[in-house]
Design brief:
Layout (H helix, E strand, L loop, with lengths): L2 H5 L2 E6 L2 E6 L9 H15 L10 H107 L3 H17 L6 H32 L18 H21 L1 H5 L21 H18 L11 H29 L6 H23 L4 H20 L17 H24 L21 H17 L5 H29 L6 H21 L2 H13 L2 H4 L4 H8 L7 H34 L22 H17 L2 H24 L6 H19 L11 H10 L3 H20 L8 H8 L6 H9 L8
């Protein structure tokens, strides 16, 4: 490295007695003279500035630059002269390091050869020593194996000795030690030793259990167990009651200790008790040993009566064994709570004796129900009866017996794929059959509450009410199922049934559409409205809201269908409901039916109003006293028709539908009178007064029975009557104002004047536009200049 390699060659030039450095790159190209001059100018501007007095410092500045230049030259020369000695010393050090490395490598090769020769010579000794150590290890393992066998035999002998001397507690403790030894051997590979130990454990467990069970059964017999019939107060306590209670507590405590000494024995369910107290894996730990022994006589009775060729074993009568088990639970609850539960609590067992007995009896019922259900898959009637009885049993088990909700009962048996699918199929089949029956019944379209006004607000026909009751019964059946996915399948079935019923209503409606004013057509409309109302209530029900959340979390296609991300998001935030699609279809059907009903009603009214629209309004004389005025004779048919139709609709439609009907009728009638009566005629003062009298004193009161201010639903007619009945002076002023406003609007002038709407609002005109008011004013024959 040399400074000249990058810095370049330094040269000096004299310009106007000023020395400045010039740098040349490695390629030898000089800086442009223009840039150099700019640099010099900037330098002088910075050092001297525009003050002419500062020129006296130029000599001093030149001297400083020369001294700096000399220092730089000396540094460059000193660096250039010191580089070669440093490089030489570095090369010498590197050579010494290389020689040292070669010496080390030579020594390493010598030591490695010696070590290899030593290992080869020591290998026979190592082989012999390894063989000896292996033999010692094998002997040691055999010794431990034999010691373990000896310990097992000693424990077994101890158990035998304790049983011979009736030291049950000592025998249980010996078995407990044997169980601890078995737990220590779990990680070993001595399978034969483990099997021998466990067989020994099972052997002594069975012997101890049989001895304790025999004594326990004798004590239970003295206490009149099992309690088959309801307990009575007439039973007198035995003379040795205290002694029996002591024996009962001792035996229960010993049986508990025996079970807890080696619980895996009972978890594996020995064959000698198979079917007696075994429980499904979903029910948690096995039933405690004392309760298992207490269940044996009940199990024998259950199998005697409800298995084999007994008359009581009938597929068509599942209620027989279900009711019997519930009776056993109820009859035994007092005994379990008074006799067994205090002993369990004193023994430190955190279990309920009554619940344990229910669990044991439930295992019997579960086995029986599972067997019967698989045999009834091809008999719809018997299968439905079994499902109904199982649901009723579950309800009584949870309510009357207070069986904990965290423990499964029988409903999980109905969730097996084939049984659940059969249940859904039967529900669909029977619901469709009931729909056919209810729609073809004689009183299908009449309300059963038609004679009770307080209960007949919705005026739902019998078929619609029966259908929604059917859906509610289905809901009550599947509500208790422990699986949300299964519940959603039933909800999907309900949605299908609602849509099917809607289609059937549509078909019947099309047949009745030739007479929309008939009772059956209105009954169909009431049915659609009733179903919509119930579904809206269900959408806010807690149970269906929980199903909605479950459907979103599980992504159930049966319920969500083809909903987009936005719709699913609305369901997740509870903004929508699972019935929105059905409600939209029902609302569309309701809207179509209501529109057709009002269209036919208006067709009849307009036919009756034809003479009224053709009345000679222009030639009617003026009457100053309204008390002498009467309804136009030509309006009577129209008014009678409106009155009759309103009364009829009020009688046949539900309250909410009638509200829509009369308001829709008022809107259509308002447009008809405005378009076909008012705008199609010219009016004298008497004609305008007669029109206002007919409307305000006759038409509006017809709707006054259903609202406080019926004129608000006839805004066009009411405001047109105001304009037509204005006195001449006010009418002329209003006409001039509207014309001026219209001209000013065209000329874009008069922006500061108040709008004409303010004048109309003062007259009570809010709906009609100024141009409409001008048209009405032109219909007045009494105004000059028309």
């Amino acid at each position: 490295y040399h400074p000249a390699d990058n810095i370049g060659e330094e040269r000096c030039k004299m310009t106007d007695n000023f020395v400045y450095p010039v740098y040349t790159t490695n390629q030898g190209s000089e800086l442009e003279s223009g840039e150099l001059q700019d640099f010099v100018v900037d330098f002088l501007e910075k050092e001297i500035g525009s003050d002419l007095k500062s020129l006296k410092n130029v000599g001093k500045l030149l001297e400083e630059l020369r001294e700096e230049n000399s220092v730089l030259e000396e540094q460059v020369l000193s660096v250039s002269s010191s580089v070669p000695p440093k490089v030489s010393s570095a090369l010498s050090a590197a050579e010494e390091a290389r020689c040292s490395m070669e010496d080390l490598q030579q020594r390493e090769r010598l030591i490695s050869n010696k070590l290899h020769q030593h290992l080869q010579g020591a290998q026979p000794w190592m082989d012999n020593l390894s063989q000896t150590l292996n033999q010692v290890d094998t002997i040691e393992r055999h010794m431990k194996y034999l010691c373990c066998l000896q310990h097992i035999e000693e424990l077994s002998a101890a158990v035998q000795q304790c049983l011979m001397t009736s030291s049950v507690w000592e025998a249980i403790r010996a078995v407990d030690s044997m169980a601890a030894l078995d737990a220590g051997l779990n990680q070993s590979g001595c399978t034969h030793l483990q099997n021998f130990l466990r067989e020994t454990l099972h052997f002594w467990h069975k012997i101890i259990k049989d001895r304790l069970a025999s004594d326990f059964e004798k004590v239970l017999t003295q206490l009149h167990w099992p309690i088959i019939s309801p307990p009575t107060q007439s039973l007198t306590p035995t003379a040795n009651c205290q002694e029996i209670s002591s024996q009962l507590e001792l035996l229960v405590t010993q049986l508990l200790a025996l079970q807890t000494s080696y619980p895996s024995v009972w978890a594996s369910t020995p064959q000698c008790f198979a079917g007696v107290y075994s429980t499904p894996a979903s029910q948690g730990p096995p039933i405690c040993l004392p309760i298992q022994i207490m269940l044996q006589p009940l199990s024998k009775r259950f199998r005697y009566h409800f298995y084999g060729n007994r008359q009581t074993n009938s597929l068509s009568k599942p209620e027989w064994y279900l009711t019997q088990v519930l009776m056993w639970m109820g009859n035994s609850s007092t005994f379990m709570e008074e006799k067994i539960q205090p002993i369990l609590e004193r023994a430190g067992a955190t279990i309920s004796a009554r619940v344990e007995l229910c669990r044991g009896l439930l295992s019997l019922v579960q086995e029986k129900v599972a067997s019967d259900a698989s045999r009834l898959l091809y008999d719809d009637g018997l299968f439905c009866h079994l499902v109904e009885e199982v649901l009723q049993f579950e309800k009584e088990l949870r309510t009357n017996q207070s069986y904990p909700a965290v423990l499964p009962g029988l409903l999980h048996l109905l969730l097996e794929d084939s049984i659940l699918q059969k249940w859904l199929t039967v529900e669909r089949k029977m619901a469709v059959e009931k729909m056919d029956a209810m729609l073809s019944a004689e009183g299908a379209w009449s309300s059963q509450y038609k004679d009770i006004s307080d209960m007949d607000e919705l005026k739902a026909p019998d078929c619609a009410e029966t259908f929604m009751t059917l859906l509610q019964v289905i809901t009550e059946r599947y509500r208790a199922l422990p699986c949300p996915s299964a519940q959603l399948k039933f909800l999907g079935l309900q949605r299908e049934l609602v849509d099917d019923f809607r289609i059937r209503l549509t078909q019947v409606m099309k047949e009745e559409s030739r007479c929309p004013l008939g009772a059956r057509y209105c009954a169909i409309l009431n049915a659609v409205n009733y179903i919509s109302t119930i579904l809206v209530d269900w959408g806010d029900n807690v149970f269906f809201l929980q199903l909605q959340q479950a459907a979103v979390s599980l992504g159930e296609e049966v319920v969500l269908g083809d909903l987009g991300v936005m719709e699913v998001g609305r369901l997740a935030s509870l903004e929508g409901s699972l019935f929105e699609g059905l409600l939209a279809l029902l609302d569309r059907l309701k809207g179509d039916m209501m529109g057709r009903l009002l269209e036919w009603t208006m067709r009849e009214i307009t036919e009756k109003a034809r003479p009224y629209s053709q009345d000679r309004w222009l030639s009617l004389p003026s009457q100053h006293d309204q008390s002498t005025m009467s309804l136009s004779s030509s309006a009577c048919p129209m008014m009678l028709c409106v009155r009759d139709r309103l009364l009829n609709l009020h009688q046949v439609l539900s309250l909410s539908l009638f509200q829509l009907a009369w308001q829709g009728l008022a809107e259509r009638l308002d447009n008809f009178l405005y378009q076909d009566v008012i705008l199609c005629n010219h009016f004298s003062d008497g004609g305008a007064a007669q029109l206002q009298f007919d409307m305000t004193r006759n038409l509006f009161p017809l709707f006054g029975h259903y609202c406080k201010r019926p004129e608000n639903f006839f805004k066009h007619v009411k405001e047109a009557c105001i304009i037509l009945c204005l006195n001449v002076g006010s009418a002329i002023l209003l006409r001039n104002l509207l014309k001026e406003s219209e001209e000013e609007t065209k000329d874009l002038a008069g922006a500061g004047d108040p709008p004409p709407e303010s004048a109309l609002n003062e007259l009570g005109v809010y709906c009609l536009a100024p141009c409409d008011v001008l048209i009405l004013l032109k219909l007045r024959a009494s105004l000059p200049g028309q």
